[in-house]
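SEVERITY: medium
COMPONENT: batch folding queue
REPORTER: lab tech (J.R.)

DESCRIPTION
The queue accepted two submissions in a row. Attaching both inputs and their returned structure tokens so the on-call engineer can compare them side by side.

ATTACHMENT 1
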Amino acid sequence: MLNHYSLGVDGNLSEAFKKVKLTEISNVQIWDLERKVQRIAKEVEEQLQQNFKNHSYKLEIDFSRTDVSPKFFPECPPLSKEQCMKPHYCSEISVAVTDLEGNLIGDEEDGYLFGEGLTIWSVEKSFLFFTVDEKFSIGSTKGCILTLPFPEIKKTLEEDVFHLAKELNIPI
């Protein structure tokens, strides 16, 4: 039986992020980090893809920018990089395994096989520890940025892929 893979937030990953005021960071800094993490993710995918193809699977490591506002859950609409300071913006790397036709492995009852992935940058608007809509007139808006060194980002993504390979009995 395939189970949904989720590490949760452990001590190491929670230390990998830093809350910042939006006035303390620029769009260009965010775009630069997103581009560098995308490059690392592509490198990991290219390095490990053949292992999955040899067993009739496809490794998919994708980058996305979405609006994670609770009002859109579960369908998060895409955003452009220019919206990176907008409340509920989230850029992330997702990791999944599909069959060669692109279908996720697993089913609704037992769960689908996908990795933890990695958030790069997110913006949240909150009031008294609750996420609120951007139209809510009070509350604070802060960003949360990935602060792991690049070799650690690569290692984190590789470990995510290794776990998926292990679930499918794919030697790496």
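ATTACHMENT 2
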Amino acid sequence: MTAAPAQGNGLQVWQPEVVSPGESRRPDIQRIAFWLCCAYVISQVYLVPIWPIGPSWSVWPCITDFVIVLMLVALPFLSRANVSLCREVAGIERLLLILGIGCVLSYLVLTLNLSHIRSAETFNDKGQSVGMYQLYRLLQYFIVFWFASRVEMDAAHAKWLCWVVGMTFWVSSAFLLADYFGLVDTPTLAPHISKDLMVAGPWAFYSRGIVGQPVGTIGFHHVYPCIQLLVLGALYLHLISARRTWLVALVLGCLWTCSFVSGSRAGFVAVSILTAVVAFTHLRRFLAVAVLVAVATVPLMFYSDSLLQAFANAIERQSTIGESYETDGLAGRVDIWNERLDLLNENAVFWLIGTGFGSAIETGENSHMLYLHITLECGLVGLSVFVLLAWRVAKLLWQRESGLKAMYLATLVLLVSALTQETFYPVPALSHFLGMYLFCVAVTLRMTVGSATAEV
């Protein structure tokens, strides 16, 4: 801080110069908090457990878990920084808190069956451990959102974060494509994971090598890499300038290719919708790019049998999107939905408050539809809170986001993809995805219009 002279009674009196908040030296806790956010993003490159320790394979810690612990340690110090928080973001935090408290009550009253509403013939105690896992993840998600929403995001931070998010997106995409084309295999990426299914659960398949389902370094289920890259790509598109048409087109092209080879049909549809909307809303910018790409790739695809063969598995998988569930178009989901509806119809109370947070495993598989799954475990009460939360987030992103509105579009397409999967639910197959999504939302909302993009 510099000093400025002031006149008083003929004497020069030196007084501290008043410096605007944007020019002041950022407090140390803010710098630490920002770099913790960067570390959180970088940790998304490798979401495989690094230490197989704990009561279950589902809570084996990965690098992200340790970063969240550091965030938790820094929270009390960040709280004293008196960072301004807009009313809308505070409202989202309150809804998240209400949702979390509701899940805790649902677990205590219903999953533990303290209310004796559920019959012993239909239910068992498997949901108790799953419910505890889901509460643990919800706590992590809340910590990440609370932390990221209080970190200063000025133009300098936007530039650094743009580089970090971009690096994470490209590296994660490279691992997924390398896995698909056989350049790397998952056993090589995780030699420390047991191949015993009784010990490592689904991670055993990762350790053995998942045939036909490229996952790279993101989880053991093919849906996870697709939607993870979707939110990473959306945040990257938000951070870069919309004027950089070639870079935007390259990101969208990479994202579309990765979703195509991932094997996730719902994820591929979601990415395709996002790509189409961005392209058509900025048609003049992307028209030249689209023509050049078509001229370069169509002849190559037509005359190259080896290239067609390389994408044969992905083409075969994605070609079933339009087929009925009887020919594997919905992979038996209709039967699962009917079973879940029959269970809800057993007791009218289940429609109101659900069967208990984490209890779905006690009566079969997951519902494979987010909205039905929330209703099954938390009832229409829980579904109402979720819908309100999703509406608030989408509305706020629409109002506050500028440029391509990539995070807003990503939110909408993910809500559509949730018709066939539990996209926004703390299921083990999607371990840290919801936390990453909330992080992206928090970062997007923290930025002002003037500092929302970085020239890279």
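NOTES FROM REPORTER
Confidence is low (pLDDT under 50) at residues 1-26, 324-328, 449-453.
No errors were logged for either attachment.
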